[in-house]
Amino acid sequence: MTASTGEGPTPVAHGSNCHAHVDPLAAVRTPDDPPWDVYLTGTVFLDIVFTGLDSAPVRGTETWARGMGSSPGGVANMATALARLGLRTSLAAAFGDDHYGDYCWDALAQGEGIDLTPSRTVRGWHSPVTVSMAYEGERTMVSHGHEPPPEEPAPDCPPRAHAAVASLTPGKHAPWIAQAASQGSRIFADVGWDETGAWDLAGLADLEHCEAFLPNAEEAMRYTRTACPRAAAQALTEHVPVAVVTLGAEGAYAVDRRTGESAEVPAIDVEALDPTGAGDVFVAGFVTGTLAGWPLADRLAFAGLTAALSVQEFGGSLSAPGWSEIAAWWRRVQSFDDQDPAALRRYAFLEELIPATARPWPLRRAVPTIGFGRSV
Fold first, then answer.
1. Cβ proximity of 143 and 153 under 8 Å
2. What tens digit of pLDDT does each residue of 307-351 get?
């Protein structure tokens, strides 16, 4: 099944969250809901992405890229993906006291409608920067930044939210995760590479507060000492109710210990322009489906679809799809006479979510540089 929309570049959108014209939680909302659907915290980077490279740069030479994009990165990837799927998103982050920080704040608050009330601008602190080079379907990154100074006094957070998304760090405890869980937030967590090499689940102190854990196949197998990602997912459910293991080009596999459900969905075959942020988009799609109460297989399929659509744009956070891209893909794949009926049935749940007549909702995309239109 193809994920191509066949459309040209999307124009820049202005205004607050103009693209969130589908509320995936509309059927389950109540007057007693918390103010936010999802809360998350982390570091915002400015991402500069070079695309159109035929291969990795060669030492001692200069390589010209055919494309370039700038966009908010770091935790902004996840926050933007959540907001574009229609979830009311609140982000706590430090922003640099520079033009990069101003740009990222505006892009998230005004462009995406993300609540930045718990966030702050740190005087005299420059924005962290990541330069990413995308080639051969992969990416190489170089980053620079400094830890922001601790805030005094600590903010009144986390706010009440249906869910929170966390990135677990081996050997480190994040008190806000337990606090959010105690307030009723459902915690969804991923994890980075364990630089210590221990790969000890006991070192993920906050895993006990999580409803779902979403590592990739290599991470899952290392943590569980298994040789198969599906066996790893089963083993992880001894520590967390829902385990989701991404399988790269093979798709994803998930197990829900509470219901006994398991599901596997193949990946959608796409030509990847830039994989930056695809993992965050996958998590955002899974969170959306979970909060909406969808079956496990539908959640997994939706997460894989949104991730596949994101890699066809470049720029990390601003590559995340909205409902117009999802609608365009669904209409397009149904138009092929030779489409696999089983593949179409896998995504038939989208029919009830997508308006019959959806006008275009342009999204901000990555731009070559920032500050266009400034007077000299």
1. no
2. 999 887 766 677 899 998 899 889 888 888 888 888 889 999 999
**pLDDT > 70: what percent of the chain?**
85
Model confidence at 153, pLDDT cuts 50, 70, 90, reads very low
The strand pair at 252-256 and 36-51 is best described as unpaired
Q: Which of 19, 91, 62 is CA-nearest to residue 325? A: 19
* Cα–Cα distance, 45 to 78 (Å, whole number): 12
Closest to 287 in 3D by CA, of 39, 19, 27, 22 = 39
Query: Using CA atoms, how far apart are residues 255 and 257, in angstroms rounded to an integer?
Result: 6
Highest mean pLDDT among 20-29, 167-176, 357-366: 167-176
* Tokens read off for 10: 């999307």
CA 127, CA 144: separation in Å to the nearest integer? 9
Q: What tokens does 179 get? A: 């606090």
pTM of the predicted structure, to 2 decimals: 0.88
pLDDT 10s digits, 274-288:
666 789 999 999 999
Q: What confidence tens digit (pLDDT) does each residue in 198-229 have?
A: 999 999 999 999 999 999 999 999 999 999 99
Phi/psi at 46 (5° precision): -95, 120
- Residue 40: CB partners within 8 Å, gap ≥ 6? 75, 78, 79, 82, 89, 90, 91, 92, 164, 165, 166
**d(Cα 217, Cα 307) in Å, to the nearest integer?**
16
* Sequence-ordered strand ranges (E) for 192-334: 210-213, 242-246, 252-256, 262-265
According to DSSP, the residues that pair with 210 across neighbouring strands are 187
As given in the structure block, the two tokens for residue 300 are: 């997994």
Q: Does the CA dihedral 210-185-118-90 come out positive or negative?
A: positive
Which run of H or of E encompasses 79?
helix 75-84
Task: Report which secondary-structure segment, H or E, holds 170.
Answer: none
For residue 28, report the phi and psi dihedrals to the nearest 5 degrees. -120, 5
